[in-house]
């Protein structure tokens, strides 16, 4: 089965690019090379390059393993944890019931 290309709006691409830069900075702060991180995350060096560039086509497992190598795996739990929009929608529904 052929994989689908992920299409993103420019503002959403920018978010991924910022994430990629943050991963790259975290790697450099730890003085780790791309080869070291890729080997420890069990991914190819090119995959790490794509993560650091903010490519939308990289698997979530590869991203998680890179965060794990950088000891940032707990940051993964912060994603979607504070669902403000969902809470507002729920409050509207709850307030509308009599």
Structure description:
The protein is mostly helical and 98 residues long. The protein is built from five helices and no strands. It has helices spanning 10-29, 34-41, 45-53, 60-69, 84-96. α1 (10-29) packs across α3 (45-53), α2 packs across α3 (45-53) and α2 (34-41) packs across α4. The protein starts with 9 loop residues before the first helix and ends with a helix. The mean pLDDT is 93.
Considering the chains and any ligands shown, give keywords for the structure.
elongated, 61% helix, mainly alpha
Work out the helicity level: 55-70%
Strand content: under 5%
What kind of oligomer do you see?
single chain
H/E element order: HHHHH
The coarse overall form would be elongated
Q: Spans with pLDDT under 50 lasting ≥5 residues?
A: none
N- and C-termini, Cα separation:
50 Å
Number of strands: 0
Q: Taking all residues together, what is the mean pLDDT?
A: 93
Largest sheet: none
Rg calculated over all Cα atoms = 17 Å
Question: Strand pairing plus helix content: what structural class?
Answer: mainly alpha
Q: What is the overall number of helices? A: 5
Secondary-structure blueprint of this entry?
Blueprint: H1 10-29, H2 34-41, H3 45-53, H4 60-69, H5 84-96
Task: Please give a quick description of this structure.
This protein has 98 residues and is mainly α. It contains five helices and no strands.
């Amino acid at each position: 089965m052929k994989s689908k290309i992920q299409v993103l709006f420019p503002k959403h691409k920018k978010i991924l690019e910022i994430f990629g830069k943050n991963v790259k900075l975290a790697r450099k702060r730890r003085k780790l090379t791309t080869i070291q991180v890729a080997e420890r995350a069990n991914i190819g060096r090119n995959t790490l390059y794509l993560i650091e560039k903010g490519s939308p086509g990289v698997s979530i497992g590869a991203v998680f393993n890179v965060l794990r190598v950088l000891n940032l795996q707990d940051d993964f739990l912060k994603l979607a944890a504070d669902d403000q929009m969902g809470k507002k929608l729920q409050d509207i529904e709850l307030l509308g019931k009599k």
